[in-house]
From TrEMBL:
It holds the Pfam family Glyco_hydro_108. The keyword Coiled coil does not apply. Gene3D superfamilies: Chitosanase, subunit A, domain 1 (1.20.141.10). The chain crosses the membrane at residues 241-263. InterPro entries: Lysozyme-like_dom_sf, Peptidoglycan-bd_3, TtsA-like_GH18_dom. This is N-acetylmuramidase. Keywords: Membrane, Transmembrane, Transmembrane helix. Residues 99-161 form the Peptidoglycan binding domain.
Length: 283
């Protein structure tokens, strides 16, 4: 375990977070060195101090916030070298709970507990049983990227996030092998908070239900007209238009029904993929 890795990890995270950002699409709002105004307000209230702009945050305040709310939240001192930094960087960007879920999912069958975003005895036991830490780091980063791609802010900030995760992956792997790793760097957009609040909406099945229902209705009507035609045929030779209408309704109804079924399959599949990426379903 890497009990003394907090300062080295923090120095890298601070490079990735950069300075002040207040992008209108950033769910974190006004943020300075990775600390949001909301987080800083809560910290100041907890200390009985007057609220002020996060831009006035001191280095000591910043380090205490990072230590208590991020490093300690993922039990950084109890994690293997490399994993501690990967988890720490992830939770500063998406929150401790989400970062822990990535770890729990990445542990695979070794972890038999709930995907709850809480590091307990079961999580630590599974982690201690890992032989290939580098491979675990790779799986954590894969889970993180899947989560990021499931956000509706990915088109805006995806390039920056992807670069950050790639750097974290390489550095974490190097740390696991006992090396310092490459230098951290700042990528535009990589410091924007990646929040579950910005998850893409699952496709609605309503359109598929409507199409399937409409198709069934068309086929029913075709059957009714077919029966009517058969009853009228002995009395009239001008039933051709009924035949044409029956064919049109049958074809249209079939296409609607098939289209509705296909859409429902697509929507169900995409909903499952989205739930998996957002860690909303068990591994």
């Amino acid at each position: 375990m890497a009990t003394g890795n907090f300062k080295a990890s923090l120095s890298r995270v601070l490079v990735s977070e950069g300075g002040f950002v207040d992008h209108p699409k950033d769910p974190g709002g006004a943020t300075f060195q990775g600390v949001t105004q909301r987080t800083y307000d809560a910290y100041r209230r907890g200390k009985g101090l007057k609220l002020r702009s996060v831009r006035s945050m001191t280095e000591g305040e910043r380090d205490e916030i990072y230590r208590r709310q991020y490093w300690d939240a993922v039990q950084g001192d109890n994690l293997p070298a490399g994993v501690d930094y990967v988890m720490f960087d992830g939770c500063t960007n998406s929150g401790p709970k989400q970062s822990i879920k990535w770890l729990q999912r990445a542990l695979g069958s070794a972890y038999t507990g709930a995907i709850d975003g809480v590091i307990g005895l079961a999580t630590l036991a599974a982690l201690n049983a890992v032989d290939d830490v580098a491979a675990l780091i790779g799986r954590i980063c894969d889970r993180r990227l899947a989560f990021l791609r499931a956000l509706d802010t990915w088109p805006t900030f995806g390039k920056g996030w992807q670069g950050r995760v790639q750097n974290v992956r390489r550095t974490g792997t190097a740390m696991a092998a006992g090396h310092a790793g490459e230098a951290a760097y700042f990528a535009a957009g990589a410091n924007v908070k990646a929040s579950i609040e910005n998850a893409r909406k699952a496709p609605s099945m309503a359109a598929g239900d409507a199409a399937t229902g409409g198709g069934a209705g068309g086929l029913t009507m075709a059957g009714t007209l077919q029966t009517l035609q058969e009853q009228l045929t002995p009395f009239s030779a001008a039933g051709g238009w009924i035949t044409n209408l029956v064919v049109a309704l049958a074809v249209g109804g079939t296409l609607l029904a098939v289209g509705g079924i296909a859409w429902r399959y697509y929507a169900k599949r995409k909903t499952a993929q989205l739930a998996d990426a957002l860690d909303a379903v068990p591994a």
